[in-house]
Amino acid sequence: MDLSSIISIVGTGLVIIIGMFVASEGNLFMFVDAASIFIVIGGGVGAFFISYPLNKCKRFLSVLRVVCTSQELDVNEVRPVMVSFAEKARREGLLALEDDLHELDDDFLRKAIQLVVDGTDPELVEQIMRTELEQIDQRHGFGSGAMIHMAGIFPSLGMIGTLIGLIVMLAHLDDPDRIGPAMAVALITTFYGAVIANALLAPMGERLNTKNDEEILKKELMIEGVLAIQAGENPRIVEEKLKAFLPASKIAEEESRGV
Fold this sequence. Notes:
The chain is mainly alpha-helical and about 260 residues long. The relative contact order is 0.15. The longest helix is centred in the last third of the chain and has 55 residues, at about 175-230. The two termini are about 30 Å apart. The chain has 10 helices and no strands.
């Protein structure tokens, strides 16, 4: 579970709700309007299904889970794992790595090591793993792209609700009792659209982009490490190769500790 994502989402929601509570002097129900909810939420769901084929729409729930889940291995944790495999392969041979496959939580790394253990040609190993990496990037790109796309749609739906409310209001200027509810629809739909887009979907889309970048970097490190292990390179050389993938702050921290 990615606690930072969950805390950020919950915290943002609480800030907005507290602001609404203070502004309304405790009457949060003034921000609830059935017509506005129907226009924005219903319209958003409809627009989503229009934008994407059904098979991709089904994958969207799994994308939402990605935002709130942490990765099996952080990029900073991969290097020690790869160096330990390099040491074992150099000491006992590549076939000895098969004994440790069941301990790997990362399916990508497990598959790469299995290909090496099976004696697959290094060029074919790299080709297979990079093809899989491209597929992962495309899947993740759909999630972040869908979030950002919908973040652009919801404010438009809010504007549609505003226009509906204004039309109803102008049509009943002679009836003061109808002007208030119509104005509420006009303003609250804009509020809903802005909140959903800017406080939820857009940040989640950027979060997915960040996670995808981290995931791709981690997988690139794995590919480089596996190929180095297969080539029989010295574990120290493997470690130095993989260090280039780490953030500069992490490298500086290790150097300061003399690692």
